Amino acid sequence: MIRLVLCFCCTLTGYSATAQTVDSMKHQPAHNQLGINAHFLVQTLISGDDARPSLEVIYKRRFERYAFRVSGSYGRVGQYLQGYYANLDSISTQRVRTVKEGNISLRSGIEFRQNFGSAQVYYGSDIYLGNHFGYLRRDSLDRNGIESATLEEVRANIISCGVQPFFGIEVPLSDNLSIAFEGGVKILYNTSRVTILNNHGVERRNSHFYDMDFDPFIERIVFSYHF
Questions:
Q1: pTM assigned to the model
Q2: What does the angle CA 214 – CA 216 – CA 221 come to, to the nearest 5 degrees?
Q3: How far is CA 162 from the centre of its chain?
Q4: Residue partners of 93: CB distance under 8 A and separation at least 6
Q5: Is the sign of the CA dihedral 22, 23, 28, 30 positive or negative?
Q6: I want to staple 73 with a disulfide (CB 3.0 to 4.6 A). Which of 56, 84, 104, 197 is the partner?
Q7: CA atoms of 209 and 213, how far apart (whole Å)
Q8: What is the residue-level pLDDT of the chain in tens, covering all 227 positions?
């Protein structure tokens, strides 16, 4: 996190001189803005952590002091290991792995903008609609590590809707390019459907719950083209 903060500060400092030469971007008439969220790429490069790949595209209809915005994201990963668990009799081992997992979301809202030196700060709120799905398996392995039986399968689907207040800062890179850093909090109502298949049969669990996902620093690192 410290390295990410330092990278953020260095980016603002390094581009401040260039931004002053493109100050007209802040005052140009109504225009379009198309951006891509590169958060997971930057997170992987800076921290070395494995970030699950995702694609998010953000479109804004910009005016001098505000903008209407809409975005869509999609992310999906294949198989990855959750862990191994040895039985007490040490004859076999259980392996828990996620066969597939993914999410899709749509957001739409309005933002208000204020000049901040050579950059602009902005804030507002989005309406959020998302779907998260996953498929997990628990298998039994013999002494040679070969799968001998599937003990349990779990399929989950969560539909979420709510609002997402946000705050960000955007720095111009050239006449038509900019980079923005944005954080916020999701306040969501969720509907969860889980199906469990094991030796006892099929079990279905449905639930409804509220959730708050708070990311005060950076959720999005957006590279945008203005036209």
A1: 0.75
A2: 110
A3: 16
A4: 84, 85, 86, 87, 140, 141, 145
A5: positive
A6: 56
A7: 13
A8: 444 433 434 444 444 444 443 455 555 678 999 999 998 777 667 665 555 668 899 999 999 899 999 999 998 877 666 666 665 555 557 777 777 888 999 999 999 999 988 899 999 999 999 999 998 888 777 666 666 677 788 999 999 999 999 999 999 999 899 999 999 999 999 999 999 988 888 999 999 999 998 765 688 999 999 99
